[in-house]
Structure formats: C-alpha cells, structure tokens
Amino acid sequence: MKKYKSKIITLLLAAALGSAVFGGVLMLDGGKASAAATATPSRIFTAENSASVKADETTTTELAFVFPEGGSVSFKRDLALKWYKAKGEAQYLSMKFAFKDTNFKTLTLTFETAPAAANKDKKSVNKILFENTDGKITAKVNDGEAKEISDPTSKDIALAFSEKDGSNSAEEGQFFVTLNGETIGMFEDVGADFAEYFSASATTPMVPFAFKAEMPDGAEGDAAKSTLIFKELNGQTFELDADQKITDNAKPVLVVNERVASFTLGTPFSLDYEVIDVIDTSVTKTMEYYQYAPKDFAVAEGEEKAKGAEYKTLSTSTYFFDTDVYKTNRMEYISVRFKLTDDTFTSDEDAAVYELAWYATESFKPETDSEIDYIKADRNAVGPHYTCITNDDEAKESTLDEENEVYKSYQEAVTEAAKKVYAGSNSYIYLPAPIKLIQDDDTNYKNLKYSIYYKTQSSDSASSSTSLSYDNLKLTVSSVGMYEFKILATDKAGNPMKYYLDKYKTKVTGDNIWDIEAIPSFTFSVSNNGISVEEPKNAEADTGYIDVSYNLSDFTVLGLSGYKSEYGLYFFDVAAFQKKYKITSFSVNELASVSFESLKEEADLSQVKGDDYVGYYAALYAKLLSERLGIELNAEDLLKPDGENDAILRKIEEFDSTIDEDKHPDDWKNSDNDYQWYSSSKSFKPQAEGSYLMFAVFTDSQLFGEKAAAYKAINVEAPRDIIAGETEWLKNNIASVILFSVAAVMLIIVIILLVVKPSDETLEDVEDGKGKKSKKNNKDRKDKKSKAAEELDELDKPKK
Predict the structure, then answer these.
(1) Residue 745: HSE in the Cβ half-sphere, 13 Å Cα cutoff
(2) What is the SS3 assignment for 799?
(3) Secondary structure (3-state) at 613
(4) pLDDT at 12
(5) Angle at the Cα of 322 from the Cα atoms of 320 and 324, rounded to 5 degrees
(6) 785 in helix, strand or coil?
(7) Last residue of a domain, which of 227, 250, 273?
(8) For residue 694, what are the domain limits?
(9) CB contact set of 45 (below 8 Å; sequence gap of 6+)
(10) In a domain, 337, yes or no
C-alpha cells in the first residue's frame, strides 16, 4: 500500500513540474498563440530618418506614417504581386492609403523586385512619384506622364496592379499600375510574381516597397512633416486595436513563380513557389496530390458509390510514374493542392486551399471525373528551341531566318547593352533575357538553364560559362575588341536543344555548337571607355575609433588593368561647417551622398594646379556636397584656414619618417605624424573625434588624361566605456521566475522520491527491531564484562 502511494505522489509531482515548466516557457514566449494573430506596426514596417509609424493622433485606430524631410517607411515582409483564388481568377497586388495632408513636395513610392533580366544590381526598381506643385497633386510611374489626382485628401488612394488595360495585355515582366481604377503607367523588368524582403545586411538588400518624402524648402513646424494613413494591403486591413496592434484578417496566399504546364514522369516533384501572409509569419502548409485512377470512380461490387479521389502527402521526394492510364491517354493526370493555415486560420475548414491547376497554362479532365482539374504528366522529351530556326525533318536541315524580328531585335539589344561597358577585369556585359528568342513548351524562360559559349578577338579558342540562370547571363569583358557568343539552353526536365548537323538531328553541346551554322551567334564590340569606379551598395559613412588603425577596403575600379592610383586623407570639421553656414540638420551619412559618377562628370581637369589631383577632387567634392545641401559657397573656402581656426576640410599629411619625435619634438608636434597616415597601405590612426574623408584618384593606363575619383567617409568615435544600466528583466518576468523556482523545488523533490526507495517495514517491524537491537546490545555488554572478570581472575592466580 505504501509503495503504491509513493508512486502516486511521484507522478503527481512530476505532472506539477511539467505544468510549471510549460507555464514558464509560455510566459517567456509572450503567449505566442495569441500574439501571432496580431502584430505591432514595427514588426511589419521600418521607419528611418526620423519618420514614424504609429497610431494617428486624431483617429487612434488608424495607422499613420509621419514623414519629416527625407523620412522613409519601408515594408519588411515578402509581398505577393500575383496569385489565384480560383481557376481563371488571378489576383494582383492592391494597396489603399490616404493623404491626411499634402505638405510634402514629393512622396516617392519605390518597389524593388527580382529583375526580369541580368543586371549589376541584381534587382529591379520601379517608382511612383507623387508631386505637389502649387497645391496640385500629380502621380507618375517612372519617367512616364504625370496625371493629376483630384481631391487627394478627401478620398482613399487605391493602387493596384493588372495585366490588362482594356484590350492591351502586359508582356512578360510587366504590370499595369492603376490609381483609383485609372491606369497611370507600367512597371517593367519585374522578374517574379512576388517581391522578396532582404535586410540591409544581405548581399543584395531588397525592400518590397517604401515611401520616402521630400519637404518644401524652408518648411517649419507642422508644415515640415506630412502624414499618410495606411489602410489596406492585399486584403489585409491595418486598423489598430486597443493595444495599437494589427489583427491578422487575411488568409495566406500561394504564389507560383513559374509556368506550370506539366510534370515529367519518373522525376521528383519540384515547384518554384512562395507562401506569403501579410501579417503572420507562422504559416503552415500541407501539400497533397492525387494521381487519377479510373477504378476510383467506378462503383465496386457491393458498394453504393465510388470512393473517389483520395489525396496523399506530397513532397519533393514524391515521384510520378506511369500506369495503365498512360498507355491509353499518353499522359497521367495529377491533381496537386496546398492547404495553408496560420495562427488565425487554424482549422481545415478555415484553411486557404489552392489548386495548382489554377496556375497551369492548361488543365485536363478525364472522362470519368469531371469535378477535378488535373495537370498532365508525360515523358516530356522535347527540349527548348530558337524561335528563329526552322527544322525541316524531310530535308534533315536546320535553317536560321536572318530576317526574323526576334533575332534582329535581340542583336540590337546586345549592341545597346555594350555601349556603356568599361573593358577591364571587374567589368561585365549583362545580356538581355532571351524571353522571345528561346522558348520551351513546358518551361518558362526563368526556369531554363543557359550556357554561353563565346570567342574574343584576341583568342582563337572558345570559352564558356555554363548552367546559368536567366538573371545571371553575363560575360566578363577584360579586354577591348570584338566578342561573339552563342547561347544553349536546357529545360527543367534536362532536355537539350536538338538541331541538324550533317543530316542528323543532334543534341547540341559545347563541342558542336559552333559547327551548327543555324544556331545564331551574336556580336558586340567593347572599346576603352576609360575608367570609372563602381558606386557602393550602401552610401553610408564607415566607423572608426581614436587610436585604432583604420584600413580602407579598396574600391572596385572598372577599366583596363595597369591603372595608377593615389590617395589623400582629409579631416572634415562638421561642427565648424554647421556653425559657419548655419546648418541646423546634418547627418554624418550625408557626407557619403556625393556620387562617384558626379565627381567624374563635373570634373574639369584643366583647373588642376600642378599635379594635385587629390586636392582638386576634394574641393570638387566640397562643392557638390554644398550644392546638395543648398549652400552657396566657394569650395576653396572649406580648404583654407579661417583666421586662427583650421580649415573645415583639412588635409592630413602623410607620415614623415625623417622627423624623430624624441630629437625634434616641435617638428613632430607640427606634423601629422601622430595619424600614421600611409597612402600606400591606405591606413591611418585617428587622433580626434569627427569625420574623415579618404579620397582616391585613378588614372587610365592608356587614355591620356582619363581619370576617375572616389572617396570613403569615416565617422570616428572615442572608445566607449560601457556602463551597465538598470534592467527591468526581473520586473517583466517575475511570473516566470516564480514558476521556475517552484518547478526547481518540485524537481528536487521528485529526484529524492525517485532515488530514495521507501522501506518495506511496518511500524510494528520498526518497534520490534528496536527491542531486539536493545536486547542484543545488553547481552553484548554483559558478555564483555564477564570476559573481563575472567581475565582478572586469571591474573590473580599464583604462578606455578
């Protein structure tokens, strides 16, 4: 009985421990089940440059974006641009907002997406510009025509994408843009049906969309900021609850980013898709498939009805194989569906269900099942083809149509792409996407794999760049001269191109592509366009520290090898600059706002004194920066001392090894040797807080007088002593601490109960044991005394 009670107590304590631990974890997690159904605005948007995202001051349930000069608000989630809610019912991006005021000079809405063709930035940028001109608000897309918005503050602005504008249809990579139902322009070079978010730390940062405001010159007070009310995105409303959170009220969507035409028998399932929810990030997807079998729709003997389609779990390890259906129809029928749930829509009844057949270019229905739309699965043995080549199977010849408009337009696009290419080791030509040039009956151009085989004027042998995606079609152009290339493609099933060579239809490879005359070759010429410096991806000041060596990571120079370089270091006294020119607002990052291209375009090298090109470009930089800030000044004023004060833009001289600090302390003090500035290693040791500028000037090795300049802004701070501040962790987690403390005590008790085994003895056994033990001890004592007396008696006996 006691053993049984002991086990019960142990189990109860263990259960209590588990409950306490679970409760503590739940408390630390902040109640995930309820929190995931809502979100604070800061989880969805990022406000920068003093902008804010908060409840509107007038109507506290509305979400307001408040912009000062240069303020921006960006969306930091993936964004669906196109998806389906039923067969033939495509859905497109939609957005609704309102101007609470029109204080802004311009408000730019920028979208960043994957590109439809290769480019240097690896992304595509489209913009909508809202401009305030004398109280009249206009909107235009990119460089298109501006259209006026009537009564901009009295109604919502409904923005949407579409692939139709009356009788006009958008082409691949295009979307019509509408405002309040009226088409205002077109987005181009959009390479996906969703926009993906990548943070600033990514190799290629990408923000699906962002608003940025520019305020009128001289605006002050309330007039120096503008407010936009953000209301809806892809069906998700942004009304705030009492806790100023946004409630998830739109189901997740399925975006399929490829053309769905068929599956290939004998290969695993694969699909380029994305599951997207505006608010909730914890979307759960279930993929299922059914492969049609006629017997499933026949009523078996003894049954009242057919069992119908029974779906199975689908994964990338699922293969589709042929059955008797293929023998009859030369295809199998596959139905695929996605079920999407999140923390708001959790049940199967509430799940968002998407049939893959909705996204297919063609769907099928077998004779015995008219309810389900299927996608075909076949052998798919036909590879990609050029639209400008004709295969004559009777004559066993392949012929290039040199008058084909697609062929000619692609050559023109290649020629245009080469015009601004700088020959050099860091230079590339980004080839146009062969959207209309190469096609496949099953695979979209974005899902084909490409190989480029090319020759140069300086080399007789061909080189190659293989297994490229559509957005990575580029060639290195390290030298001047003529280039010639051919393109080979394979589809997603691995099928190659096939054309006739010597009367045999031959699989095209790198070994024979130059032998097949019908395959077109394209040419372009690269000249020495001089030298330039690639702009940095993030135009921000770098960070340095006093007495800590700073080493410059060199610039990316575009030009022929052998160019010369020289460097100079300057200290920019920002405080003196602001005081002298009465600049109230100035960010250190504005020091990095002058583009390298503008330095090249504005340079007049005939004005250079002697050979001080670094000094000239430093003065030109000062002039361009002043113009950006709206200041009228002579750039030379920044380079000259102002009375007893040093120059605002002061040159730091290189380390002079001829000066010994111990022998010539005054000369050392008057020098800049403490900075240890070495132009050869592009390194220095800052001696004062403030902003530094390291300039570089590059000279072309072949073109006389051809130069390019670049710079790096460095913000130097004093070493920081970190003082631990007060923390409210204990206050915020007191419930969890108590629960874990209770759990710890219970855990100790459980361990004791598990380790210390209860005794089998009863109370009577214990009492009897004590009596027996006492009697035994008394007997032992008596025996010892008796033995001792006997020993004494022996000693008293007389010895013989």
Answers:
(1) 5
(2) coil
(3) helix
(4) 42
(5) 140
(6) helix
(7) 250
(8) 532-717
(9) 53, 65, 73, 74, 75, 76
(10) yes
Domain co-membership, 303 together with 397: no
Q: What is the largest CA-CA distance in the chain?
A: 149
State which H helix or E strand residue 443 sits in: none
Pair of tokens at residue 619: 């003065």
CA 17 to chain centre: 42
- Residues 313-322 as b or e (16 or more Cβ within 10 Å = b): ebeeebebeb
> Residue 603 in contact with residue 709, Cβ under 8 Å?
yes
DSSP-derived secondary structure letter, 642: B
Domain check: are 510 and 576 in the same one?
no
Q: HSE-up of 98 (CA within 13 Å, CB side)?
A: 14
Domain membership of residue 552 (yes or no) is yes
The Cα 204–Cα 195 span in angstroms is 13
C-alpha span between 166 and 160 (Å, rounded): 15
* Tokens (6 digits) for 546: 């006093």
Question: Is there a single domain that holds both residue 396 and residue 483?
Answer: yes
Quote the CA–CA distance of 472 and 474 in Å, as a whole number. Answer: 6
Phi/psi region, residue 547 (left: phi>0; alpha: psi -120 to 50; beta: rest), is left
Q: Are 13 and 746 in contact (CB under 8 A)?
A: yes
Coil/strand/helix, residue 779: helix
Q: Are residues 346 and 399 in the same domain?
A: no
Query: Tokens 């700088």 appear where?
Result: 422
- The answer to whether the CB of 605 falls within 8 A of the CB of 611 is no
User: Do the Cβ atoms of 533 and 697 come closer than 8 Å?
Assistant: no
On whether both 496 and 439 belong to a single domain, the answer is yes
Q: What is each CA distance from 356 to 191, 271, 313, 334, 696, in whole angstroms?
A: 21, 10, 15, 10, 55
Q: Provide block-wise average pLDDT over 10 residues at a time, the chain (800 residues).
A: 43 47 43 60 95 94 95 96 96 97 96 96 96 93 94 93 95 96 96 95 93 91 94 97 94 95 94 94 94 91 86 96 94 96 90 96 87 93 96 96 96 94 88 96 94 88 93 92 95 95 95 96 91 85 91 88 92 85 77 91 88 91 85 75 78 93 91 94 92 94 88 83 56 68 81 68 54 52 53 50
Are both 473 and 557 inside the same structural domain? no
Contact between 680 and 551 (Cβ < 8 Å): no
Selection from 450, 456, 451, 470 nearest residue 423 by Cα: 456
Three-state secondary structure call for residue 717: strand
> Is residue 781 assigned to a domain?
no
How far apart, in whole angstroms, are the C-alpha atoms of residue 188 and residue 195? Answer: 14
Whole-angstrom distance, CA of residue 593 vs CA of residue 544: 19
Same domain for 436 and 488, yes or no, is yes
Are the C-beta atoms of residues 345 and 235 closer than 8 Å to each other?
no
Structure token digits, residue 799: 């010895």
Domain assignment present for 782: no
Whole-number Å distance between alpha carbons of 252 and 352? 7
**Crossing angle of helices 734-755 and 2-28, rounded to 10°:** 150
Q: Which residues of 642-659 are buried (b: 16+ CB within 10 A; e: fewer)?
A: eeeeebbbbbbebbeeeb
Question: For residue 783, what pLDDT is reported?
Answer: 57
Instruction: Indicate the helix (H) or strand (E) that contains 713.
Output: strand 707-717
Residues 258 and 245 in one domain: no
Separation of alpha carbons 278 and 75, rounded Å = 10
**DSSP 8-state assignment for residue 208:** S
How many domains are there within the chain?
5
Cβ atoms of residues 451 and 465 within 8 Å: yes
Residues in a beta bridge with 48: 72
Measuring CA to CA, which residue among 296, 360, 294 is closest to residue 327?
294
| 109 close to 211: Cβ distance less than 8 angstroms | yes
User: What pTM does this model have?
Assistant: 0.78
Q: Lay out the sheet containing 459-468: strands in order across.
A: 459-468, 449-456, 481-490, 522-526
